[in-house]
Amino acid sequence: MAAADKALTGGTGDVNPQQLVLNAIQDNALDNPSTSVFALPQAIGLPTKKGMAAVLELLKADVGFSPGLNLAEVAGIFFEMIMAVGTIAVPTPSDATTIWVANVAKFTVVGGLSVRQSIFQKDFTDGAGHGLLIAANTMSIEIDSIGSLQTNTAHVRLYYRFKLVPLPEYLGILASQTAGVTV
Question: SS3 sequence, 128-155?
């Protein structure tokens, strides 16, 4: 294993990203928020060193939303997706565990469309290639809409790898991602 690979992954050698595909569905056409909870991959069987723990390192996410969204011009947020770490009943943008909020369309006033996209990409890495470390076992994805009057779907593709971190760092990550979460 090259020294750069070891520094990037903490010694796991898991340099190339793996992919996890999730489909979060808004379970009705009444514009009620719907939350889907997904189990995240675990590093079971990954050899670790004494005093180290393996965590999931989220590198990137691609999200495509259901086609044919009804773009009725309604003041306020039309359609959004909130991605949070852990099992959250209804995540909000201000939750400590929220890692991404994507707005497909937002109408500030009738006739004033400010954002309209159907495919989003989020890069969670810093300039050195290190991603967002996740110690939680689950991820919650909430879909909310106003005026769509249809069932909506977020097709999510996560790019991740596993990384070894010192046990105290792991406990800090876990504590920060479960603050205020009741399971």
Answer: CCCCEEECCCEEEEEEEECCCCCCCEEE
